[in-house]
Amino acid sequence: MSDTVSTSSAPTPQAAASMPSSDVPQTKPLGLWADTWRRLKRNKIAIVGLVIISVFLVIGAAEIVAVDIVHANLAPYDPNKVDYKLTPTGLGSPPSLSHPFGTDYLGRDIFSRTLVATRISLLIGVIAVAIALTIGLALGPVSGYYGGVIDSFIMRLADIFFAYPYILFVLLIMTVLGPGFRNVFIAIGILSWATYARLVRGTVLSIKTMEYIEAARAQGASDLRIIFRHVLPNSMAPVYVAIAMGVGGAIVTEAALSFLGIGIQPPNASWGKMIADYLSYMAAGRWWMELFPSVALVLTVFGFISFGNGLRDATDPKLKE
Amino acid sequence: MAERLLDVKNLSTHFFTHAGVVRAVNGVSFSLDRGETLGIVGESGSGKTVAALSVMHLVPDPPGKIVEGEIVLKGRDLVSLSDDEMRHVRGNDIAMIFQDPMTSLNPVFKIGDQIAEAIQLHQGKSKREAWRMAAALLAKVGIPDAERRVNEYPFEYSGGMRQRAMIAMAISCNPDILIADEPTTALDVTIQAQIMDVIREMQAQYDSGVIMITHDLGVVAQMADRVMVMYGGRTIEYGPVDEVYYNAHQPYTWGLLGSLPRLDETDKQRLTPIKGQPPNLLLLAPGCPFAGRCPYEREVCRDNFPASEIVGPDHGVNCWIPLQERLEIRAKLPRFTARVA
Amino acid sequence: MSPILAVRDLKKHFPIKTGILKRTTGKVYAVDGVSFDIDEGQTLGLVGESGCGKSTTGRVVLRLLAATDGLVKFDGVDVMKASRAEMQRLRRDMQIVFQDPYASLNPRMKVKNIIAEPLRIHKIGTEAERQRRVHELLETVGLTSEHAERYPHEFSGGQRQRIGLARALALNPRLIICDEPVSALDVSIQAQMINLLEDLQNELKLTYLFIAHDLSVVKHISDRVAVMYLGKIVEVADSSIMYTRPQHPYTEALLSAVPIPDPKTERIRRRIILEGDVPSPANPPSGCVFHPRCPRMQPDPCTKVMPLLESTGGGASQNHVVACHFPTRYASDGKVTADAP
Is there a contact between A219 and C146 if contact means CB atoms under 8 Å apart? Predict the structure, then answer.
């Protein structure tokens, strides 16, 4: 063979092994998330949100380990310990060196209570969203992939869940299930699935026409395999944002429920419960009781929402840099 | 002696991105005379489109910037012009038609509007007069029933018709130069033939110069008087079309010509592709951009880019291989010798 | 020796649904009575412009789309009527390579999993055996084992097409439908891929249905070429004589429209420019689908009766078939004996 211009297409291993190194891709292997991270880094508020979330997660996780697994107390004081000495007037004592957040009307240390309540918020946020995701990421892709009657049915079902005012619906379920910790996240989870289902369905509609999905069909993959192995992993982009927002939303909803008295029951503390309990003391000028759990709640939810917004902007392909 | 319309000397356009500097065009020079067609040929990453956009000052800035070079249009340097002055040049003196007529035409305006706008802007005609001229132009580029069709929207036109409408827009102000950037790549081949005809006719009628940018060596053979072959942002060979096709001196040109299956070949001959991948413009080595894929490269190729060497009438090549050795190598290339025989 | 793939009168019509109630108001006759055979180890090229139905034909043959009517027999088995279990077996024998290197690979799967996926679906081999097969396939298509751990976005277009090919080969198919496998690639990379496909065909005794719009490529790689227009096959001939003895006027126009990368040839070529645009497959003309654009059209019978695809004598060989009332005829020495009426 006198022509020396090409060597690249012989199928035998020997010829392939002599392939010049210029055939190996020369770009540094950028991860799939590297570009998103770079854009996210430039959004200061989103980074602040990320920091807040991280702090929240660390404290919450630590508290869960402490309370549920080790049965110890991480806080400086027992959050439920009543101490009348610390509340001489029955109106608690203001922040001091020994009690940085002050004490409440029963002499309980507010710092400890706020800290321990983080556990409740984290559990609610994570478990409620997990339940919603399980339902939503099962129904959404199926709806989008099959289209037709199945799609109509599932989307109408979702419409029903969207149509009802969220809080009223949650109240309805709580009334049916009864008050209490476990029922809160079941209620929130069951009601939020529609958001995730609709979001993922939207992306599924465009993914299912991609050639690699046709390739999977040509290989003989079952519908189920195609939906959950090929379509769903590629349809998750908008869902991540919704998860961030969803956790924030679940935490607020729990606070609202507890505020209304049908969420967390005493003696357990959650931020919402604390906000409800201490509200009347504001009139008496006992501001610290209401303040700290409120700040904790607002800060945490702010963190999730800012991060969620930042993530949405960072993954939006059309947003100019 | 034909009038020299455009003289581009040593043009370099770089893009300054977060990932690094993309040297899209590096020291490229070419010229265009009245009445002639220059074909700029290259694959992806060759820089041919960026070179054309640079001439038109349409390179997005940031991140792109013309970092060096002269672009002289009928004696006038374009690089130093202000935005306003350049806008007057565009459409009037140089017009461009793009690859995808679907996205280059504004879908919410009627075709007549879009053509008339350019006429009103550059020639100061009244709206009625401009519309009349627009209809006449559509008829000239071969759109049937032009009087009616000038009132339609782009979505009512087929791909071939949209491209004709784009040509009508481009020639509406009698530009001296028409730049066509892959004008037929998105079209079916029978429509492509029609469009090529229209371009040729318009060129003859207006006596304009045409720069045809394409990756299709068949289109170049059909349309061009002179050819410039680009690779990795540089010119590596240029000359009259017969010279470049039958007397090619650059290994890349040989590789390109050898990669093409030909409709008229009687005995089936195995293709002789170029090994490797198109260049990554972020990681260009200082020397010849074809180093790494060139089967005949030597050490000097990676370090320095060779200067232009004249190998025929008006025919230059950039290659470090000595002339004699090149001729010897070329004589042994089966697809090349078969074609020339 | 019966053909490995036999297609008879294949039809695929898509309903057009409009209005709130989505009533069917019309049909797109994408594939409207297509018949052909392919012998084992051969390549049939299916060529035509956009809207001719060639891609749809490929998908219906593979039963990725359900046929409206007609027969597809693979190795004697009726593909349309196969049960789920039979279809799973058939899928191992019939595979497909797609056009778009950027959309045909799952971006979230590593290359090794993309190629192993068909093995997993059909539960072939242990995990270790599958990995070995993946590495073997990578080498077969000219990539290396270290590519297995990477993601598609780290590869160039040509490399991705090779990965797609490796995936198609995983189950040891006998027939591969190549749906525009090189159209999206640079010219120099196209040639690599074409040579690879040819080499694999020889080594693995593969049969190809090669679908493309680039006539030069199709002619080069195919043993026989079928020309499609508006859902119908208008001519089938051996590729070696396709260029010299076309019988159908559309084939002639198509051939003359394809630019050949040879300036001297281009200057002397006789060009047949077709008028008008390709009509929509939702509204096909009566009688012969090509009659509105046909230079030889006679109202009777061309507007009334669609001609059958058959050998008319005066073709180059017995298996040269054409669907035309007035096909060009050739004497045995190749000279035209009868042309337009």
Answer: no
